[in-house]
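TODO from last week: model Universal stress protein A-like protein isoform X1.
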Amino acid sequence: MGKARLVGIGMDYSATSKAALKWAIDNLIEEGDQIIIIHVASPKADPTNKQLFEDTGSPLIPLDEFREINVSKHYGLNPDKEVLNMLDTVSKVKKVTVVAKVYWGDAREKLCDAVEHLKLDTLVVGSRGLGVLKRVLLRSVSKYVVQNASCPVTVVKGSSLSCLSGICRK
């Protein structure tokens, strides 16, 4: 076991972000690591705490607190039971610390900001698997993050894996 790492996982509760979390748990996370679940909410969302934390993102929210529905709603989120169960399991089995952080704005920019602010060792994100035309029109989040993040980024597409700017290891 090496040095404990800070592993960011982009989460929007889509099937691909859940696949990214599962892949990270199965292939990347080691005992002692810290998982930071990074949520990027719409800039149009107006939860209670947004005004306090709009520029820097929320404070780190421990998993136990994040499970509480009132805490999540303060940040404009509705956590998914499947995701919470995966995080509970990995925290107990692999003895990792799990926290969440919420940003508001453009997911591409905020994920790159998170890498810088949190000093992440690596980031794992899901890919929607857009075709060439849709990717050009909708501007792929994963492609932007791979090209602009200052740490290794792993992009998980469904059940398959693509390591684009980092080292994928078990």
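Done. The mean pLDDT is 82.
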